[in-house]
Amino acid sequence: MTNDHEVWFVLTFGGLFFGLGFISIFGHVYLYFFQMQKIMGFLSNSQGVLARKSFLSGGLAGIYFVLIGVGSFLVFPSWAIKSGALDKEDYLSFPRGLLGMIRFFYIASLGSGVSMIVFLIGRKYMGWIE
Question: Is Transmembrane a UniProt keyword of this protein (predicted)?
Fold first, then answer.
């Protein structure tokens, strides 16, 4: 039998997972259909983006691969600049509004993943899975 704390735990972390996941999915769709040309134009000198650009013709999986790569470059720019995947001038000239939107969508997806991990650990701790 479940108690009130277990129900609130499931509602909280399950809701976070699904809510942030939907934000991330709809964010990816929006970025692809409405912002992809701008993103590729502003990051035209970045080696990591140029290496992934050929995947855009690879269907849905290729588009998702490119968006995840670009998102990781812009969420963690210092790592991407050190590795040579992101050009520093491209990053500095990238529009702040679009950068904030991309960061929001990708931090939402990271939050969704973290809430799912907490949910799985909590289920194991509560004895729901063996």
Answer: yes
CA distances from residue 51 to 2, 20, 40, 56 in whole angstroms, order as listed = 51, 29, 12, 11
Q: Which two tokens mark 69?
A: 């790569």
Three-class secondary structure of residue 52 per DSSP: helix
Give CA separation, 98 vs 55, 86, 91, in Å. Answer: 22, 16, 12
pLDDT of 8 strictly over 90? no
Distance CA(84)–CA(93), nearest Å, equals 17
Mark out the alpha helices in the chain (DSSP H runs).
4-30, 36-42, 47-52, 59-75, 77-83, 88-93, 96-126
Q: Tell me how many degrees the CA angle 111-4-119 measures, rounded to the nearest 5.
A: 25
Instruction: Please give the residue range of the domain that contains residue 74.
Output: 4-126
Number of domain units in the chain: 1
3: confidence class by pLDDT, cuts 50, 70, 90: confident
Judge contact between 43 and 87, C-beta under 8 A. yes
The CA R_g of the chain, rounded to the nearest whole Å, is 18
